[in-house]
Amino acid sequence: MDMDLNSDLGESFGAWRMGDDATMLEVVTSANVACGFHAGDPTGILNTLRAAASRGVVVGAHVGYPDLVGFGRRNMDPSSAELVADVVYQIGALQGLATAAGTQVRYVKPHGALYNTIAYDKRQASDVIEGILAIDPSLVLMGLAGTPVLQWAQERGLATVAEAFADRAYTPEGSLVSRREKAAVLHDPEIVGQRMVRLVETGKIQAIDGSLIALQADSICVHGDSPGAVAMAQQVRQQLEAAGVSLKSFVAGSSL
């Protein structure tokens, strides 16, 4: 069994430190690197890219709404022209920094509110897909497992990767519980690790009401900005490896 383990990194901004990228990059196989719209400044992003390159971690563009104050977690309704251009702009900026760091951008994972919106909103999903196709159609789109955006992207010719979240609760319908709700974020590394082993072995995950839902995923995310994020990621990795799962990026030829 193979599985990719990813985390959202490069999100520090000036004197504001977010997460422990250096340590997290020792654990994950793919890094979703901020592009400056929801978080991240050029110096910090470049440092994260260099650290990823030195460890052989695959890099993806973590594109989001232009919302530094809200950390990209507030819903927005940009025009199609704006959203397409925003996606192109962010990927292009990260590609330039990645080149300077000795690596390259291999995939795109939208962030926060944009990620959740395009999972079901066909107009905004189409705009994000259009932006990716415009700059580099070889990029892979990472999206929420079991949602329509993955099929829409495939219909346009994009390769896709289905993602599950280690540290987030799920609704019985298979979507993420809103961060505004109690128990939306999980904090016990042992329990989270067990959930991910069951997901990989059975294709099922427990929803917030206790029911089991089917979920086929190619990548597991541990948020880099959550309290105890590194310990969470380490526990997930340890339990998966103990269960015989090989941790490797979904990008062919890449492994950690």
From TrEMBL:
Keywords: ATP-binding, Hydrolase, Nucleotide-binding. The keyword tRNA-binding does not apply. GO terms for molecular function: 5-oxoprolinase (ATP-hydrolyzing) activity; ATP binding. It catalyses: 5-oxo-L-proline + ATP + 2 H2O = L-glutamate + ADP + phosphate + H(+). Its EC number is 3.5.2.9. SUPFAM superfamilies: Glycoside hydrolase/deacetylase. Pfam families: LamB_YcsF. CDD domains: LamB_YcsF_like. InterPro entries: Glyco_hydro/deAcase_b/a-brl, LamB/YcsF/PxpA-like. Coiled coil: none annotated. The keyword Hydrolase applies. It is an enzyme of class 3 (hydrolase). One of its GO terms (biological process) is carbohydrate metabolic process. Belongs to the LamB/PxpA family. NCBIfam families: PRK05406.1-3, PRK05406.1-5. Catalyzes the cleavage of 5-oxoproline to form L-glutamate coupled to the hydrolysis of ATP to ADP and inorganic phosphate. Forms a complex composed of PxpA, PxpB and PxpC. This is 5-oxoprolinase subunit A.
